[in-house]
Structure formats: C-alpha cells, structure tokens
Fold these 4 entries.
Entry 1:
Amino acid sequence: LLDDLKLYEPDAFFGQFKEMELRRIDVFRELSKREKVDFGFIVIKSSTVTIETMASVEYERQRNGDRSANIEFLRAAKAFCADLDDAISNLVAEFPGAEIIFVSDHAMSVRTHAVNPNVALARLGFQTPSVAKQKTFQLVHILKRLIPASIKSKLKNNKNIASKFQSMVGFEIKTSQAFCQALSNGRHGIFINDEVRFNGPVSVDDVQRIAQSIVDQLNQMDLAKAHGIKASLYEKPSGAKMAWRGPDIYLDMPFAYHTTTRFSDFVTATPLPGEPWSLADAVKDERTVAKSPEALAAIVGGEWLCDKGKGNLTAVYDHVLNRHPGKVD
C-alpha cells in the first residue's frame, strides 16, 4: 500500500484496509451459512497490527502534548476502528445464538529502552565478542534501511537470503557459551550454546549449570536492577515436541523494553523521533513499538469451560475442545 501504491494519505490508506476487512468478514459470513460451521475464526491482523504499530506512537506524542503528532492519521485510524467494530457487531447480530471469543495473543507498547543481552553476557564472561562480525552486522542493517521496501520484501521471501540474515551474529560461535538472537520486534530469551543444538562448546550436561550461573550473575548487575530486568530459568513445557528449541533463560522486563542486538550497550534509551511523522516514513522500517505480553481472551454469549486463571491463553484451546468434544482433533 505504501511502497507500491504510494497511499500516503490516511483516508486512502485506511480505505484499502476497510475494503479488505469487510470482504474478509463477508466471506466468513457466507461460508458459515453455506457450510453450517460449528467452529470458525477470522484473523484480522494486517490492519490492526498496522494501527498498533503506527498509531500508538502518535497517541503517545499526543498524550505528551507534542504538537507534531499526526492528528490526521489518528482521526483516520479511529474512523477505521469504528467501521471495523460496526462490521463485527453486524456479524454477531446475524448469528444470535453463537458464542464469540475475541483473542489477541499479545499487545504493543511504545518502546522506551532497548536491551542487548549479548553485551551483558560478554561482560560476565559468557560470550566472546567479534569486532569484525559486529561491523558486518551493523553494515547489513544500514543497507537494509536504504533498500526500497519492494525489493526488501522480495529478499525476505528468499529462504536462502533470509536464513543467512537470521544467522548473522556479532560474537565468536566456537568460544561463546551463551547468546541472544533477536530476530523480531519483541522480547527474546538467552540460549546456551550447546553442542547438540548449535554445535557450540557447551556439553549437554553443563547446560543447566551454566544457565543458572548466568541467571545468578545477571540478576546481580546494577544496570539490570536499575531497569527492572530479571532473568530466570525458562521452564520448558513438558511433552512439547519443539520445547528443546526454546531459550534456556527467560528475561522479564518492563513492557516498554525490548530485546535487540543492534545497540552496543546493555540498556539504551530509545526516545521517540523528534521530527513530524507521516505514512511516507513507514517504508523506512523505523521500529518505535515492541510486542508486549498482555494477551486478551474475552467471551461474548457464553462462559469459560475451563479454569486456568488469568494470563494463560491456552485456556482458549481447552475451551474450544470442551465446547466441541469429539469434533476437534
């Protein structure tokens, strides 16, 4: 919409989103009537993520009394949300006996600080930095910002290029005992560089010991204490086939903090850009928000058929299984 169609005017931009989402809801409505669906779902993602990513920053500016906030964009975003609410309301009205569950697996926060766990690991002696690799890593990110979005999208879809980019690190793999690899805009844990998963120097028998040592030492760092960053051993779900791929250490931090490997300090303040913002700036891929852990699951027209307490989104799975016994495999 932005790079190819140049839809930089908020009304035109959200007009395309509105058409897309209304068509999606219409298709779901028709399929539900034709197929007599017992359980179905609609994924409304592109538009809502875009609003969270772009509008959150402008709302933050507005709350801070910043006159550079893009009021026109906020107005168009609010109007789109109202149209989406109306469309969902009409859909619910067409199926009065249906039970509706609204789910969001995470929220978004305007980020204020960037956290690079690799810097802490190096200071604690668990990682060997490589100046050459770090320079290459930074150069690639600079070039990434200069490449047009249309070309960037094609490169992302190339599995070989994407794999090589995601494998880039700023440390010596053969001598580093632990690392963090931040591949998306959110929070990431710390992995022990063991011999089985990463062909690293740590034996499987030493993973737990080294992980505990990192947790103990990182939690004693003054900077970690000052910013409310706390490490803990990650409890991998028992019986989960892919659990071994998960991190060994979980990092808990304030909602406005996110992990990254692009900054040279353990914790770096990331204030909002000072210049006025527009949709034309979105193609620069300047991230100013990060995923935050607040999830949402709300039922309309029904009651939960499971008891997992608040904060456990797997309750949705259990509820659906209990609601449709024998129909969901």
Note: The chain has a mean pLDDT of 84.
Entry 2:
Amino acid sequence: INGGVTLEGTTLEGRTYGVYTRLSGNTDYPDSQDFNGNTSNGARLSLNDNTIIGLVGVQIQSDDDFEDEDAIGRIDIINGATFKNSVYANLIEINSGGRVEFSGTESGTEVSGADESGGLTDTTIDLNGNAVELVLGTGVTVRGDIVKSEDSINSTVDFLGAATVTGDLGVSSGSGDATLDEVIVRGDVSNPVVINGSLATDLLTYEANNRMRVDGDVLLNVNTSSESSQNRVNFQDNDGTLEVGGNLVGVEGKNAVTTTQANTGTVTMLGDNTAGGEAQSITGNIGTDTFAISTLNVGGDGALASTTTVDGDVFAQNVVLDNNG
C-alpha cells in the first residue's frame, strides 16, 4: 500500500473488511481465494505509514457473510501504521522506528495468527532493533510474543487500558538479552493489563491506578550499560498494583520499585497453591525511606501462597505474609 494511504475498507453485513479473501459460490466469484499464511513465502502485506479501518486477514463467503480467519503470512511495516480492527497475520515485522497502534474496539480486538482451518494460533510482533512506539488500545489481545532483536535497548509499549499479551513482552528474539525502554500502564483498576509470559523493560511507569499482572518474570536488569538506566517500576503518585508470578529482577543495590507519594502502590508476589508456596525472589529495594509503597503482598488471593526472598530493603506501609484468604 502506498505511503500515507488510509484504507477505509468495505462494509458487508455489518462488518468492515480491510484486507480479505473470498470463497467461491456464484458467477461473480467463481474461484475461491485464500492467503498463504507461511511466514517465509506466503502472502505479504507491506505498509508505510498507513491506516487500515477494517479487519485484516479474514475470509468472507460469496454472499458477503463472514467465513473465518485467513491469516496473512507476514506484515512488513515502515514509518508506522494504525490498525482499527482485528489483525490476523502469522508474523508482523516492524522494520523502522515510528508509531504502530492496534486500536481497541467495544467487542475486543485480536492480533493473532491462524492456521489453514482458521483456528487461532500464536503470532509474533518483532520490533527488531528499532525505536518503536507500540500502542495497544483497550480490549486488545495479542496472541503470542512481542520481541526485540538481541542486545537492543529501546522502544516503548503504551497500554491505554485493559489488554492482554499471551506470551512474552520485550524479550530477545535471539540468544542474547534485549529490553524495552519503557512500558506505560494507563486505564483503571477494573481494566487490568495481563502478560502471560515474562516482561523485559528498563522502566515500568504507572500513569493511572491500574493493575498489571505478569505471570512470568519482571526483568528490569537488562540495561546496565549507561548511567541513565532506570531498572525500576515507578508508580509515581498513582495507587497502582503490580502482580508477579515469577521473580521481580531489579539491580542489586538500586531501587526496583519507587513511588513519588507515600503509601501508594502495591506489589503482590502471587505464588501458587503448592504446599509452602512458590519460591520467588525480589532483587533491589522496594520503596524508599522517604516514599514507602502502600503494600507488599507475599502470596496472592485465594489459595495462593509464596515464599519470597528479598535481596534489598523494603519500605512499605504494610507487608502481608501468605495473603491466601
């Protein structure tokens, strides 16, 4: 698609389609067409600062009804792009800096792969080594990983509200380490952000009283190459919550969690329901002697318990042990 073009799409039977295929069934469409979803030699969509309003990577019937997901093999993006609806592609390569937005919709927005039968599968959004501003709107689910080239330290991921990443966020696509420069959490506590894998970022910033759950590790320790490295979670003056299913890995001797207003911010080491609780660890200081966080929970709600080792100082108004109901 030519640079800067907005693809308005076609509205059929109440749905708006941007990039799609058709099944056969009448004289107007005598032959079925579908995308080859192979990431190496399948269908490829190249974007350059484009906006696509409708669905991407789906198939419709000859009578204009929705049929199934029909994933594009690969989407290549330079100079940014905006997607206003669900996107089905088995690989999304972001090949330059710029702003890439997946906007949320009231019914939810999928960014996913799909197999030949239309079943949803994992995709990969690869930021490569570029300084990308990736924006995920309220209601977006990324089914898969968002990765970076090994040894790269840049890019921002901005969560505007409730969103889910079913894999890892910000980790390396290779054998070396990588990290995002910043992850921003907005919205409110009723619209949590969920990362089912691990999160790698130099700075996790709360711009609202929202909740983020990371089922894997929170890796704040990758960027130690410069004096400007943050290596921390910053609640600022917001009473947000960070729930961690793995380890909270900061830098020894540095503040791993900070706030700019005393008695704000909660860290919960979720643990699990095994006897004695899951073994977890925190590296770095929690809060400061000037601005203590609100609460450190060791163990999550219900039957969850944790055995957490802290390598650092803890400044918290409340430390709740085995918070299992």
Note: The longest strand covers residues 74-83.
Entry 3:
Amino acid sequence: KGYMSALAILLSARPKRAKTSTMLAAFPNGLFVGRPSSIREIAQGELGFEPNVVDESLRTLPDLKACLDAWVSDGTIKQFDALVIDDWSLLAKASMNEWEQEEQKKADKAKRGTDVRALYRNYEFHQSHAISTCVNLGMHFGMVCHEREPSDGRPGIPDVPSANQGKNMPAWFDIVARVISDKDMLDPWLPLALYADPFDDNYVTSDRTGVIRPRAPLNLREVLRAKRQPEVLSRLPGLEWQEDIASKVAEAIVGGADAMQTLAGVWGGTVPLEMRSAEDCHLRWACQDGIARATLELRKRRLLSSTAAEVSVSTTPPLPKKRG
C-alpha cells in the first residue's frame, strides 16, 4: 500500500484531548506503536475496531529504530499505510535519560566533561530516521506528543527534548497542529478542533496543506481530503459504507440542512451521545466525517465567495462622472 504523497503529521495537546482517537480514525489500517492496552481501549471503545498495535513494549527510540529496520527488511511494514507513534514524548524522555547515563560513564572514564550536544544529535538522528523511513516508503507518519505551555517569553511547543528542537518541528513535519477546545464546531460529540497558525507567536504550529489554518474540525481524514491535491484515506475492510453515509451527511449540511436534524435522520431518531455498541461507534464515525467534510466545504465556499467579491470590487471601473 502507499500514497501519492506521504505526510508527516504531529499532534500535540494536553492529556485526554482525543489525539490518539484522531489518529486511529484517520489511519485505521495503520500500525500503532505505544502502550498496547491504552491504544486498544480507545480504538475499541470509541471507534469499535481492533487496531494494529505493536505488542512488544518499545521503551526507547533505539528500540523503535531496531523494530522499524526489521519491519522494512522483512517487508512487514508494507501491509500498513501509516505508522503512528503514541506517545513520542515518553519515548524521547526515556531515550535521553538512557543516553545521558551512557555519556556520563564515558565522560568519567575519559576524565572529561559530558558532551550534551551528542545527546541531542542522537535524538535528531532517530527522529529523522523514523520520519524519512516511512515517508520514503510512501507511508504517512504520525506522531502524538504532550505539549509544553508558553513560559518566560518562550512559545508553547510539542514536548521534545529541547526548546530549539520544539521550535524546529515545522521543518520536519507537514502538519504540526494543536488540539484545542472549540464549542462552535458542529460535531455534537467532540467540541474540539485542530489549530495551526504559523503567525501565532504563542505556540509553534504549521500546516503545509493550508486546510487547517487557523483551525479546522478535529478530523485528519477530512483535512487531507480537502487538500488541493486530495488524499483519500482507506477505510477498514467491511466499513466502506461509511463513505456513503459521510457523503450524504455532508451534502445535506452543505445544502442548508440543520446538522442535528440531518444526524437524527441518519440515526432514525434521537442522536445518542453515548455509544452502546461497535455498530454505533461505526455510524458515529461516519457521521463525524460527514460533518467535518461539510464544515470544510462551507468554509471553502465562503472564502471563494469573499475573494470573488473583493476581486469584483477591485476590478470594477469607476462610474463615469455626470457632465454639465
């Protein structure tokens, strides 16, 4: 499997902001690295499916590199369309602690000071290796991070080993987005949004797709679909029908229908906020894709309409002055 253009995507936020479920919903056929029990619980409880999770616990970035190299060598990686690391911050912290201990032993033996820069070079090597390996294979690469709040005049950044590395994340990733609260979103189940504004001095974010800026529905599947060169992400086998539901919901809302009334029509009555079965989760998932698709399409149309109006005003010749 592969994509025309693989992207590197980073999501950062406070804990419990649906980062993991957002990645799972976008890449249900991807391979997930992290705490297996947590990822499975979210996938089964919120989306109703069994995810592809690496069962062995990878504690450090060298562990990840060794596994990734092995998967590439034996072809295992080719059956997946994305690799998602959740949580990168924990892997990075454990790795830095281990490298620091190793460097201290070398420094003591050689009777010299510790080379702190070597630790950060090692980190950057492993980050580069993970991203480039996946993207070069045509796979999307996803990274879930904790978030450092702004402090002492420094912007908020994804939680990586150093502030400079955090500031440089936009150089490595196509999307560096935060997950924020947003009660204005149409989705009744998820009052959250993606946020990426490169001109915001308070947080380091970026968006090469141009779809998120400054905020968009918390739905990577629909963000990538709304790109100038659309990326249509794969559905789970047996859930291809979700695309039909998403299209119908989007078409109705774009056509002027009320979002909640549209959802009520899909559900055949009251829209449940709590899911009681995997089937409920699957239907909600499809509806959320439709809501996000409609939101992005309506925004696009408003933008085009506004731009057309501005062009019309700027190119309209002045009225001739009345003579006499």
Note: The first strand starts at residue 8 and ends at 12.
Entry 4:
Amino acid sequence: EGSSCYEANVWLKIGAGYRAAGQVEKGEAFLTQAYKTANERDNDVENCFTSGTTPGESLLNRSREYLESDHLDLALHIAEGSHNYFSPMTMIEIAGDFYEAGQQRKAKQIITRSVDLAAEMAAEMAAERLAIAEVLAELDKPEQSLSDMDEDTSNVLPAEGPFEAVHSWVRAAVLYSQLGSDQQADDAFAAANAALEELSGRTVGVAQAIIVNGYTELGKFEQATQLASAMENSSESMRAYGDIAAAYAKAGEVDEAIRVASSIGQDEFTRLSMMRAYLETEQYDQAQQIATQPDMIDYLPEIGQAYCAAGQAEQVVNSIELLESN
C-alpha cells in the first residue's frame, strides 16, 4: 500500500522528462496522471503517514527542486497543476524567483493567480492565506496584502476552531500593525481574546502565551503583562513573563527588562531569553553582563561568536579570557 503513495512522483518525473525532450503533449498526459493520483492519495493518511508528506505535498517538493535547478516554468506548471492546499504559497515562492530573474510582470501575474487560487480554497486554509498576506507585505505590496487580510478576517478566520483562531487572529494583528492599520490590529487582538474565552483545560495557557507574544512583538507591554498576570498555569505564566522581559531587552528598555525578570526570580530561561534578545539587537555589553553570571557562564561562547560576527576581535579575546578564568 505504501508504494502507491509515491506513484504520483513517478508519473511526474516521466512527464517532466517528456516535456524536456520536446514531447509536450505526451508529457502533459503523464503530469495530469500525477495530479490525479496525488489527489486520490492525499486523504489516505493511514497508509501514507510514513512518507512524512502527503502525495500532493511531495509533488510541490519536486516543484521546488525544479525551481532550485532554474527550471522556473516547469516548477510553476507543477505548482499550479497540483492544486494542493500549499500550492498558493509555493507559487508565491516561485514568483519571487521570476522577480529576481527580471521577469517582474510575470511575477505579478503569478502572485495574482496564487491569491485567486487561495480564495477558492479560503474556507479550508486560513493559515495559508495569512502566510500569503505576510509574503505580500514583505514584497512591499501593502495594498494587496491588506486586501487579502480583509478577506481573511471577514470570511476565513471566523470559521476556525477557537484555538486555531487565537493563533490566526494574533498573526493578523501583528501584520495589520506592521501595515499601519492599528485599529484593525486592535480589533484582531479583541477577536483573539474572544476566541480564548471559548477554550478550556491545558489549551488555555498555551493560547494565552500566544497572545502575550503577539502583544510583546508590537511593544504592547501593558496588555502583555495584564494577560500574563491572569494566567493560572504557573509554568506558562513564568514563560510569558520571560518573553516580556526579553521583549523589553530587545526594545532597549534595560531597566524594565531587569524589573520584570526580577519579579519572577530571574530564572535561567528568562535570563537566556534576555541575553539572546540583547545579542539580536547588538546590545553586546548587556548580553555579556548576563553571560558572566556564575550560573550562565556556559553561554559565554555565544557572546564571543556575536562579537566575532560583528568584527570586534578584541572583545572576542576578552570573552575567551572570562571563560578561561571560570
């Protein structure tokens, strides 16, 4: 049974070979058979789980391989033909390569087609559409990204289960804020908190932590702290406070970072998160202050590596000396 899960790949490779040999019509017949086979096998979870991907996802992996080999047109042809849950995102990746290859007009056409395809699958793929909106924002297409987001928040996200909705609404809030739509970001956070109210049991703490992370990412420390203080699970609450301290550190608000960390006993996880936040924002001295604490000395090599990457060789020597002295 398991071998049938790989059958679509065989048809695809034969079809690609015929296309490369100039026998396009014959190649198309095999590619069509590949898509048909993948669609038939995609729901055969019981027999195909050992392959690690569904047959449809596997075809998209082949598409990416052709993309890496600069066979852009073939990669696009497979991604579109597969009509898989992940096809729109793969098409966005391919559009990026077309754009870099100087084919900006075609790249825009591919993006439009990927959005149209995502719209067809909208009821089933909120996370995928959010990912597309995020990529569009990165490609400096804010209007198209906002349009996608408005469609998602109106028609897609409300159909999700409460836990998935919390995660999706927080992602939407962060993206709205990045696009300058603060009111819509606030509305998305409100929707995330509303979905949170529908949860019970272990998932509540996890969902609360997701919202806390969203707040801290946008510098909404007051809201993050309020939610962290309301968390009943002590370990989840500690982790949430640690994330808040790290976010303060990343923002350069050293005193606030130390205050929050001190309020929960400055555990190792919190201090490590702060240290790495300092490194990420090139606040090397503050990071080194943490790493030189007696129970944190094992992390001192990370400071040396950061100094080395920044071209500060003299500081690397200092880090080595501190490590040797301990």
Note: The mean pLDDT is 83.
